[in-house]
Design brief:
The complex is a heterodimer of chains A (541) and B (311).
Chain A (H helix, E strand, L loop, with lengths): L19 H6 L3 H29 L10 H36 L7 H20 L26 H28 L12 H32 L13 H18 L2 H15 L6 H15 L14 H13 L1 H15 L8 H24 L1 H7 L3 H31 L5 H28 L13 H29 L52
Helix pairs in contact in A: 2-3, 2-4, 2-16, 3-4, 3-5, 3-14, 4-5, 5-6, 6-7, 6-8, 6-9, 8-11, 8-12, 8-14, 9-11, 11-12, 12-14, 12-15, 14-15, 15-16
Chain B lengths: L1 H17 L7 H4 L10 H34 L15 H30 L6 E8 L2 E6 L4 E5 L3 H6 L22 E4 L4 E7 L4 E5 L4 E5 L3 E7 L5 E7 L11 E7 L1 H13 L8 H8 L8 E2 L18
Parallel strand pairs in B: 1-5, 4-10
Antiparallel strand pairs in B: 1-2, 2-3, 5-8, 6-7, 6-9, 8-11, 9-10
Classes of the chains: A mainly alpha (541), B alpha+beta (311).
Amino acid sequence: MVYADTHDHAHGGHGPATGIMRWITTTNHKDLGTLYLWFSMIMFFIGGLFSLVIRAELYEPGLQFVTPGFYNEMVTLHALVMIFGGIMPAFTGLANWMVPMMVGAPDMALPRVNNWGFWILPFAFTLMLSSLFLPGGAPQSGWTLYPPVVLQTGPSLPFVIFAIHLMGISSITGAINVVVTILNLRAPGMTLMKMPMFVWSWLVTGYLLIAVMPALAGAVTMLLTDKYFGTSFFNPAGGGDPVLFEHVFWFFGHPEVYIMILPAFGIISAIIPTFSRKPLFGYSSMVYAIAAIAFLSFIVWAHHMFADGLPLPAEMFFMFSTMLIAVPTGVKIFNWIATMWRGSLTFETPMLFAVAFVFLFSIGGFSGLMMALAPVDFQYHNTYFIVAHFHYVLVPGALFAIIAAIYYWIPKWTGTMYNETLGKIHFWLSAIFINVVFFPQHFLGLAGMPRRIPDYAIQFTDLNKISTIGAFVFFASQFIFIYNILRCALFRKGMAKASARVWDGARGLEWTVPSPAPYHTFEDPPEVDDHEVPWLEHSAT
Amino acid sequence: MLTLKRAAGRAVATAAGIAGTAHASLQKDAFWNLPSGVTSLSREEYGLHMMAFWVVVVIGVLVFGTMFYSLFAHRRSRHPTPSNFHENTTVEVIWTIIPFLILVGMAIPAAATLIHAYDTRNADLTIKVTGVQWKWEYAYPEQGLQFVSGLDAASTRAAPLDSGVDPSSVPDYLRGVDHPMVVPVGEKIRLLITSADVDHGWWVEDLGVKKNAYPGFINEAWFKADRIGTYRGQCTVLCGYGHGYMPIVVKVVSQQDFKGWAAQMKHDGFGYTPSASELAAVTSDSDAGARTRAPVAPASTPAPATSAAGD
C-alpha cells in the first residue's frame, strides 16, 4: 500500500499552526499525543523527586530530613502524581498517537474533546500540587484517602478532591474518545479481530475507565460532603461506616490497576513479535485473556481489605476470585514466550525493555498470587512486601512498557533513530537498579516492616540502605533516556533517518506511512493488507 | 513437599545466621522471611507462605528457563530463519488448565486456615484493644484492668528530627512501649479491636494476627501463644502524623506471672470497673469472627491532631 502523501498539498491550513497557539488550540491526535507524553514525563520526574524524599528519609533510622507529617504528604502525592499524572496520561498519549494510525483513521473521533481532555490536566495538577503550600499541607492519608484520617486534612482537601474530579473528567473523555475511534473509525477491512493488540487492550481499558472513574468521583465527593456538609457516609457516629469508603474506593481501585497494565500488555504484544520476526502467538486467546482480566477486575476489589474483618464468606469469595486472575495472566506470559520461541530474535532497546517486562512483571505477579491467599495476606498486608509487589508491576511493568513503546515508536514519530548505545546503557542501568530498589523490600516486609512509616526499627537498616541507593541510581539513569529522546525530538540534524518500516519485523498500518508520520495520515482510508495482520495467516508450524 | 519445606526453613535459618542477625528475638531470626511465630495460626500462615513461595519458584524456574533458553538459542545469529507458527489449541488449553489446578491445590489449605483464623469461640481471656492517635489502649474487663500503651521514653527522645540521639543506641528503637499487653501462655486470647478516632491496624507478626481497628465497629481476632516471650509489632494502617510511632508489645508469661502482673497493675492504679453490658459482651461467645457495629459509637469525627513523637 502506498501512502497518498500528495493529498493535502493543495489545501491551506492543514499543517500545524505556529508558536504556542499550535499546542493550545490543537485538535490533532499526534500533537495531543505529544502533549500527553511530555506532560507525563514532567509528572514522572516530580513524582520521582517525591519518592527520593521518601527514600532519603529511609536511608537510615531516625529522622534526618523531614517531619513525619511531610513524609506522609510525600507518600500521598508520590502515588497520586505517578498514577494519575505519570502512567495514565502516558498511556493516553500513546493511544492518541498510535490508535488512529493503527486502525487507519485520520484522527481521533472527537478531536475537540481530545484537546479539552488534555488541557484539563495541567490545571488539575496545579491544584493538587498547590496543596503542599496550603496551611496544614497535603493530605497525610496516602493516595487511598481513607476516612476518617483524610478528614483531618486542612484546607487542602477540597483542592485535592477537585483535582481528582478533574483528572476523572480528563480520563473519561480520553477513554470515550479512544473507544469511539476504535468502534467507528476503523478503515474498511479492519475487523475487530484484525486489530493490533495495543488497540484491543485500549478498547478494554477505555471501558474500564468509563465504568470505574465515576465510582472514584462518588467516593471523593462523599468525603467532601462528610467534611463540609454534615453528611455521615463514613462517620460511624452518624450511622456511616469507614469501610464503605474502602469498598467504593477499591471498586474503582482494582480495575484501575488493570487500567495501568492492560495497555502495557498491548505494547508488549506489539514489540515482542517485531523483534522475534514471528507473528504473535495465540492472538485470539490474548484478546480473550484481556477481556477475562477486565471482567475479573470488577469482582476482586476486597482483596485489598482482607484485614478489615469482612465476613468469612466474603473473604473466601474474594480470595478465590483473586487467584483466578492468575489464569488469564499466565496465558499472556506463556503466549509471549511462545511468540519468542523459534523466532529470530534481536535485542534492540525496545525488545530489551519488553523482555525485562515479561520477567519482572511476572515476579510482581508471583508475589500477587502469594498475597491472594487471604490468611497469608494477614501477614503481608500493609507491609513492604506489598510495596515491593505493586512497584514490580507498576515500574518494571507499566513504566518499562511505556519506555519500550517510546523507543519503539519514536523513529516513527520523529523520523530519527534514537542512539542505540545510549538506549542499551539506559536499559541495563534501569533493569539492574530497579531490582536493587525493590527486591530487598520483599524481605523488609516479611521481616515485619510496615509501609508508610517515616522511621523504622534498627534491624531494617541494611536493606533500606540498599533500596535507597538503588532509587537514586535509577532516578539518575533516566536522564540518559531524556537526553536520548530529546535528541530525536528536537535536534534532528545529522542523525540517522528512520525508514517507514523502521524495524524489519514490524507489522501494522502505522508502518506503512512515512517516518516521520505526516501531520495528517489516512485522510483517505487505507486498504488493510493481510501482510500487516500476520496473526491471521494460517500457521506453518 | 514437606521435606522441601523443611530444607527451605533450614536454608532460611542458615542465611539468617550467616548474616549475623541471629539474636534471641524471633523478629531478628526471621530477618529474610516471615517468622513461623508462636501460635498455631502463625505457623499455618508460615506454611502456606512457604508453599506458595515454592510453587512460584518452581513455576518461575520453568517459565523463565524456557524464556532465557529461547533468548539464547533463537537469537538471530543462531537461528536466522524464524518459524511462522502462531497458534496451537492443545498447548493453549493445557497451559490454561494446569495453572487452574495448581490454584485449586493452593486454595484448599488456604481456605482451611482462613476458617481457623475466624474461629474466635471458646476464648479463655478477652482483651479490648482500642487504637487512639497514636497509642494503643488495652482493657481486661474480666480482670478490671485498663491502661494505655505508648512508645517508650527512650524511643520518644531519639525519634524527633535532629534529636541528637543515635537511634541504634536505643534498645528496641520504635518497638518498645511503656506498658505492654501481658497474656498468659497457652490460653486462647480473644481480641476485640476498635478505634477511638481514625483507622488503625493491630499487627504482631509472631502471633499471626493482623486486624484493622475502626471507630464505631468492633473487629475480632484471636491467638494462643505457646511460648513465653516478648513479641513486637506496629500499627499497620496509616493513621496520620504519628503512624510510625505506634508499636505493639505483647509479653507472653506463665499463668502465675500473669496473675502477679494483674495484681501489680491494679495496685499501680490501672483498675477500673467494667459495666455489666461490657462484661456480658466479653464473656459471651460471638460466632461472627468478623466486624460488627459497636453498641456505642464515638461522638463525632475527631479534631485534627497535630503533635506526636517526632514533632
